[in-house]
Design a protein that fits this description.
The chain is about 30% helix and about 20% strand. It is globular. Bound molecules: zinc ion.
Length: about 400
């Protein structure tokens, strides 16, 4: 057993920390844990993180990331569950591919990998075959890495069908309108090719569908701009939720990153978008946080320059860093990385002494190559100081990570 005394433990009812002592069993795979009795006065205990948007790239792009390196990166920063996106190769849009991906993921059982199935122009009439086997759906409203854009009329057909089969799975939308993107092909700069208007028009479509299909659950992922926030502020739909990503809270088009490294979809916006997003997250206009962990190798970023950047390992520390800067309160942060994502993915609530992470929030640490576990071996946050180094991760009452 490992005993930690004087630990500040998050209490969901009181929405605050309560000092107590906790004891944990130690998983067989954890060796050289060192001292078995420690004073936790400088540590805090939080529920583990749930990252509802990652691309672990397996099968098909395992030189960028795979389930092993992706789950290692997640666990190292206290993420216990992820939702893996379907733009792998092959695409996850058939029963066989869902089952294949699940069997790969199960080998890395310290992290619970949930599987999102793509709704595509190929499978949109056959969703009843996959509904009970996937954990969520993903709809790309425009082209992004993997070319999975779905025609708008097919999206509506798919929603009709999901309504008929009484699907309870959340439907994630990459909201950028393909017509607006196509009209901008001549522009040289990525951010101008994919303007905020493209996102806002797509968000409007999702709001309309959420209104028209009240029994289905809609989720708009990686909200990136003020225009979208203005629409979301006016909306009160019980069947709609949203997230944004640390990249949109810490970086904008003027940030000191090369154009290729900062290329993501939707693009980084302006400093004012960035500030408005932080405010929207702190007030709950945006419900949750996700990483959109979308790694490519540095070599690829510098040559063919695909869109995407890593982020799963940075998710929790970046949020803790915003808390330390008084940009967001603990209660909102816990909702954003744990409470609301758990509800979205139907994860049963567990006692915090069973599933938690123990972090040092008083000493900052630098993001550098040796800290990065992702196979892509880079981070847009390199050189930045973060708070929230994870010391232990506990699953089912057992320590499964010590660092
Ligand atoms: Zn993504």
């Amino acid at each position: 057993m490992m005993n930690i005394t004087n630990l500040k433990v998050w209490n969901h009812e009181r929405k605050d920390f309560i000092t107590s002592d906790l004891s944990f069993r130690i998983n067989k795979r954890i060796t050289n844990l060192g001292e078995k009795e420690i004073d936790g006065s400088n540590l805090i205990c939080l529920p583990t993180g749930i990252d509802i948007h990652v691309h672990f790239r397996e099968p098909g792009y395992t030189h960028k990331e795979d389930m092993k390196s992706g789950t290692d990166a997640a666990l190292y920063s206290g993420i216990s569950t992820v939702l893996d996106m379907p733009n792998t190769n092959p695409i996850t849009d058939t029963l066989d591919q869902i089952l294949l991906k699940r069997s790969i993921a199960e080998k890395h059982d310290f992290v619970d990998v949930r599987i999102a199935a793509a709704i595509t122009d190929r499978n949109y009439l056959n969703l009843m075959k996959i509904d009970e086997h996937c954990d969520a759906y993903k709809i790309f409203m425009s082209e992004s890495f993997g070319n999975l854009a779905v025609k708008e009329e097919n999206i509506e057909e798919a929603l009709n069908q999901l309504e008929q089969i009484e699907s309870s799975k959340p439907i994630f939308f990459h909201a950028e309108d393909s017509l607006i993107l196509k009209s901008k092909v001549d522009e040289k700069e990525h951010a101008k090719q994919r303007p905020p208007e493209a996102e806002a028009v797509a968000v409007q479509s999702v709001l309309r569908w959420a209104h028209d299909f009240p029994s289905l659950r809609f989720h708009i992922t990686h909200v990136s701009c003020t225009l979208s926030l203005r629409l979301l502020e006016l909306t009160a739909l019980d069947n709609l939720s949203t997230d944004t990503c640390p990249r949109y809270l810490f970086f904008d088009q003027n940030s000191d990153l090369s154009p290729s490294l900062k290329k993501v979809n939707p693009p980084l916006r302006t400093a004012s978008d960035r500030n408005n997003l932080i405010e929207a997250l702190s007030k709950g206009v945006i419900d949750m946080i996700s990483s959109d962990h979308s790694p490519h190798t540095l070599e690829e970023k510098k040559t063919s320059c695909p869109s995407g950047m890593p982020g799963v390992q940075e998710l929790i520390p970046s949020l803790i860093t915003l808390i330390q800067a008084n940009e967001i309160e603990w209660e909102r942060a816990v909702e954003a990385f744990h409470v609301f994502p758990s509800k979205l993915l139907n994860i049963e609530p567990k006692d915090i002494s069973e599933n938690c992470m123990i972090l040092d929030v008083s000493n900052p640490f630098e993001v550098n190559k040796s800290w990065i576990k992702s196979k892509s071996k880079w981070s847009p946050f390199e050189g930045k100081m973060f708070y929230g180094q994870v010391k232990y991760v506990i699953k089912s009452g057992e320590i499964i990570l010590f660092s």
